[in-house]
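Tutorial sheet, problem 5. The two components below are modelled jointly, 877 residues in total.
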Amino acid sequence: MAAALELSGIRKSFGDFLALDNAELRVEYGEVHALLGENGAGKSSLMNVAAGLYSPDSGLISIAGAACRFSGPREAMQHGIGMIHQSFKLVKRFSVTENIHLANPRGPYHSGRKAILREISDKTRALGFGLDPYRRIDSLSIAEQQRVEIIKVLVAGAHILILDEPTAVLTEGESQRLLSMVREIAERGAAVVLVTHKLRDVKTFAHRVTVMRSGKTITTLDAQKATAEVLTMLTVGSTIIAPSRSAKPAGELRLAVSGLASRTIEGHTPLVNATFSVRSGEIYGIAGVGGNGQTELAAALVGGRLPNAGAIEIKQPGKEEMMDVTHATPRQRRDHGMAAVPADRQAFGLASSLSIVDNFAIGFMHQGRFGSPARIDRTSMGLATKEAVADFDVQGVRSLWQRAGLLSGGNAQKLILAREFSRAPSIIVAHSPTRGLDVRACAAVQERLLAARDRGAAVVLISEDLDEVLSISDRIGVMTRGRIVAEFDAPADRLAVGRAMVDHA
Amino acid sequence: MPDRYAVLPPLWAPRFFSVVAPALPHLILEVRSDMPAWKQAVIISCSIVIGLFVSAVILIGSGVPTADLIGEFAASVFDVRGFHAVLVQAAPLILVGVAASIGFRARFWNLGLEGQMVWGGIAATAVSIHEIGPEQLRLPFMALAAMLAGMGWVAIPTLFKLKFSVNEIIATLLLNYVATYFLYDLLYGSWKDPSDAYPHSAQYAAAERLPDIGFVNVGLPLALFFALIVWWLAELSRFGFYLKFIYANPAMARFVGVPIRSAVLAAVLISGALAALAGFVISSGSTGRLTQGFFEGYGFSGVLIAFLARNNAAAAAIVAILVAMLFVTGQSFQIFYQIPFSMVQMIQAIIVMCVAASEFFVRHRIRIQRRG
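Model answer (structure tokens):
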């Protein structure tokens, strides 16, 4: 039987950059086929070729044994290829039905809408979940929006589904539910390509896995038989050493958060009496299912949104007194030794249209490190950035004056770390610092957090990745419904932490 | 990474598993991530030329002989009187262009340039009417009063924006009308010139007129001086560095310690002060009194200049001189061919549209690919 989707000898370059180099992929009907690789390995590019978004420089695409060539995504869709992108292509102010109808016109408006409603209820029933077709997209959770995307391509008649990093934005529970659903779709006869960099997703849910590295497809293996070590070796090209814990005891109190409470904003879990403290030389990991007040906590800590009640007190090295910074501006907090690694890098971490040098220098500008108010010193800015970029191993820098937006996710994060950590901060608030990063970048970021800890910083690590929290924290607090419900000393029992996360929910 | 999203297909496209694809050329649009500055300059220059060409066609259509069209335009540069007129005209245009640029850099869309000019004129005239200060200091006093008035007028929408998030585009625009009617009230009322009863203020005294230095009056060097100051502030100072971040990503700027409120406030006050100074330069340098319509058309031109100059003060000064040529040419068309002066605004609008459309070529690359 012919393969559902077969890509052979695909080459694609952007300017001088060869994104795909002779890539091959063969996906059968009835299987979940994982496409595994680091960031920038070419997974998304290859799938964009399959979905008609990019036209390849050379190579063949065939669907069910017939060669085809797409002039655009619409034509790929007509051939039964449906891609679910990392950032959803939904109109936020439209309802579920309107969005699906918009993508799948069915004759006259009213009868078309009826047909769409019927198809939505058929598909949701078949897949076993509820979805109110009249809800507006912006009132849905991320996981629900993703389901709308899936229904959208199924209604369009897709028999080859491509999911680009679908679990990057989901919590653990949501990911599990999504992936079992995807497997269900495959077992009913569709072909599914799962683009991911998470080994665990591959091992649990994929039938076969193709590994990509720097634009080439390395090999295709049986996902169940391949061991995690082999897959890691293949994706990275070399093994990764897991960061280790230091034996030094924690020092004096640096950060005390007591009774923090925040206003209720629609769609957010407010903080309810969140209390914890962090010492010098310690990583305090905050574990929890996403949406339990982590965003509010981070905002309160860095000064993005002021809390309603409670207090945040800090103590700088060498000072006797605790200082209340509950109502301080972000700038005052920085001046008192706080550094922040925001969860949303694009929105709060970098100005992507400005240069790497600018994005680095801005962190030090108001303290007068780079020239007087009348004249900024571009030469010293450039030199300091060059040093920091080398120091923090920011890759893909063709010129220091290039736009920061051209950096890949992992390198953008390294640049943020370079800016935030070069000041030797005494308190660090890191929110999901490795979200969406590949194995190697993850390890680099975690090493930086550990190095800062070893230097004596107090680190708050808010993360929905339980493995990350468990592997690098010295103490772990579990956050549920806006409060810290349990604390564990490292090494913590994964099961006990997991139970605390769920019990109080 | 470039994202290909639109394709212009050949007239018929093979559907469903065609094996033999015809070899037809295929236009492909790709999004560019970056383009060198000089290429952008070439594209913008070409679009300005296209805009001028379209304008020329319209002018010829409305009865201007082709030879005169080029002649009048050239006269604004090569004729001594014409060139003098251009330089005098350029001074207020440079000021409003720079005023708009610095406001836009702080993401404050100051469409109230004309209102601020009106207040600049009113304040300067008040100093003249009430003979405030000794005669030798009268001009600096008038200039200062104008700038303070402009700052005061722009402070209103700014505080509304910072305190209550009131949209400044609408607020500044509507406040123009308030300023204009207040001006009419003065000119038809207490400030009406007693000597001829026309709705304009009494002639300024000789000491209240901008003196000539060399070829032109002091307005042009004054405007160039402020353009240089603003260029320095925006490009070289720490304040300008902050503005870059406020423009690029305000949310991020706040978290890395940029004093957003004070930087925006400073930029907007400079903007208001310079626009008001333009009002002073016209009334003291050209008309010699406060008139009814001295500010008309400058608001739009200021925005246009800032837009074409990409909010760069130095470039704004150059663009302003080109716009001044357009103004002077328009004035002679008005006299010799009875073509309304609004034609100048139409030409400006055509150029804006052409440049805005040329953005497409800055953002995209067009490739021709052969099918099959």
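Marking note: The first strand of chain A starts at residue 5 and ends at 14. Full credit if you identified this.
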